[in-house]
Amino acid sequence: MSTTMETTKISQQDDLWKNMELGKISDEEVRRLMKIGIEKRIKWGTKPTQQEQLAQLLDFNKSLRGMKMATEIDTLENHKIYETPESFNQIIGGKESAGLFTDETTTIEEANTKMMDLYCERAGLKDGHTILDLGCGAGLLVLHLAKKYKKSKITGITNTSSHKEYILEQCKNLNLSNVEIILADVTKVDIESTFDRVFVIGLIEHMKNFELFLRKISKWMKNDGLLLLEHLCHKSFSDHWEPLSEDDWYAKNFFPSGTLVIPSATCLLYFQEDVTVIDHWILSGNNFARSNEVILKRIDGKIEEVKDIFMSFYGIGREEAEKLINWWRLLCITANELFKYNNGGCDGYRPLDSKRKQLRPQQ
Ligand SMILES: C[S@@+](CC[C@H](N)C(=O)[O-])C[C@H]1O[C@@H](n2cnc3c(N)ncnc32)[C@H](O)[C@@H]1O
Question: In angstroms, what is the span from residue 274 Cα to ligand 1's centroid?
């Protein structure tokens, strides 16, 4: 009898997701269900005592140290979230991480530029520095740096071939000759050079063994170099972002199992074998929530155009393209709810301050 009940529960969940992908569940209902999911996850991660909370963090860190640098790399490399057509990237603002929204009227383009300028300021970037951007995505930061710091040489590493082609094409159009793009998996690539500044924006969430990852990066840093690293976080617990139960539809359907980690805000303080944390900021989740809200509006405002873009880029029919649009809409809605939960998770933090870490190699 219990088996029958379990099967029914699973098939109800499959139906729920199928209906969501078909656009048959209203946005309000998706938001309501997402809030329930977030509350369950917070309950799961929040321990009754401070000692138990700390033990959760330490056990998590220990589990990472026993793992490969990253898992399921090929699954993520071919995943629809990153292998996107450039015309679609243009519509949604081109950054795969948060912008910095300083007031109600800030557009996503302005927010993305403000955030990149803040990276430069906090990294103490100077024209002439050699710069490495790991997991550079569609190259918004690489191009921003190349335009702003003409004497600098910027090297970007991406494992998405369409991103490499796009960035190099943009460099040609903009007459930028200070950019090199390496198409590679960061966990496998070996480069001889060392850099004044290294940026890792939104990439460590796709790694598992942070110790090995930071060791690798430290070898690419000059002795007085700095690493500016930004990651999503929860303020008190770390999470492998695996489904907590059969009805955990949102954890199951956006990032494949094994490809995502959400570290706690303090997680990297425990990984200082090869780099030293010299500064540490927290950014309100409201920023990433707003990026997602704007992207949702952009998609909604250009549904027919996005459909045509998807059909031609992926070689799919109208129905599949509609499903993919719904998937993107669901991603934006759930991310919006997740990052704005509890006023951006930043009780006790200044709302528009920023969270990232600046790390120096050990001498
Ligand atoms: C959240 S996005 C951030 C992209 C970019 N830094 C930004 O802020 O827009 C993470 C990026 O890491 C890339 N990535 C993930 N795993 C990687 C790997 N093993 N090697 C190279 N890039 C990887 C993805 O393709 C994606 O573009």
Answer: 22
What is the position in ligand 1's atom list of the atom closest to the CA of 157?
21
Asked if residue 357 lies in contact with residue 286, where contact means CB atoms within 8 angstroms, the answer is no
Ligand 1 center to residue 68 CA distance, Å? Answer: 18
Q: Whose CA is nearest to atom 27 of ligand 1?
A: 137
Alpha-carbon distances of 328 from 37, 243, 322, rounded to whole Å: 19, 20, 10
Residue to mutate, 203, 212, 339, ligand 1, most ligand atoms under 8 Å from C-beta? 203
Phi then psi dihedrals of residue 320, to 5 deg: -65, -40
Mutate to test the pocket of ligand 1, among 206, 208, 213, 241 (most ligand atoms within 8 A of CB): 206
pLDDT given for residue 13 in this prediction: 73
Counting from 1 in the atom list of ligand 1, the atom nearest the Cα of 140 is 9
Q: Is 291 in the pocket of ligand 1 (CB under 6 A)?
A: no
Name the pTM for this structure. Answer: 0.92
Among 357, 340, 333, which residue's Cα sits nearest to residue 33? Answer: 333
Residue 334, ligand 1, Cβ within 6 A: no
Residues 218-259 have pLDDT tens digits of 999 999 999 999 999 999 999 999 999 999 999 999 999 999
Give pLDDT tens digits for 308-355: 999 999 999 999 999 999 999 999 999 999 999 998 986 433 333 334
pLDDT one-digit tens code per residue, 43-88? 999 999 999 999 999 999 999 999 999 999 988 887 888 989 999 9
Q: Sheet with 153-158: list strands edge to edge.
A: 179-183, 153-158, 130-134, 195-201, 221-230, 357-361, 275-280
Beta bridge partners of 264: 234
